[in-house]
Amino acid sequence: MPGFKSTLRAGHTPGHSAVAVQSKGQKLVFWGDITHGDVVQFDEPDVTIGFDEDQAAAATARDAALAEAVKEGYLVAGAHTRFPGIGHVGTDSDRFDWVPLNYSGTL
To answer: CATH: 3.40.50.300, 3.40.50.1820, 3.40.50.2300, 3.60.15.10. Which one for 4-100?
Structure first.
């Protein structure tokens, strides 16, 4: 389907995927459980948890997803990140950093 793409990011579960929506030069990637907490895993992508069915694959998928998000500069929406759960991945002195979008309660 034009504007939609799925990328396999297996590890957390065997079929774990990221879904990208792209239009007019803008891209948003929904990556689900690539991370389980931005406090640790953005600095240390190799840290895994028991919920990852294949921990080595999950760490590899996470590192690849974070690096791609930095390189391409697209928006990311995922579980287990700081409110509002949508933002960009940047870099810092440790490794990667979560940069949430500014949120406003008004339209």
So the answer is: 3.60.15.10
> What are the angstrom distances between the C-alpha of 49 and each of 33, 35, 58?
11, 10, 9
Q: Strand 96-100 vs strand 86-91: parallel, antiparallel, or unpaired?
A: antiparallel
Tell whether pTM > 0.85: yes
Asked if 66 contacts 96 with a C-beta cutoff of 8 angstroms, the reply is yes
What would the pLDDT profile of 23-54 be if each residue is shown by its tens digit?
A: 999 999 999 889 987 778 999 999 998 989 99
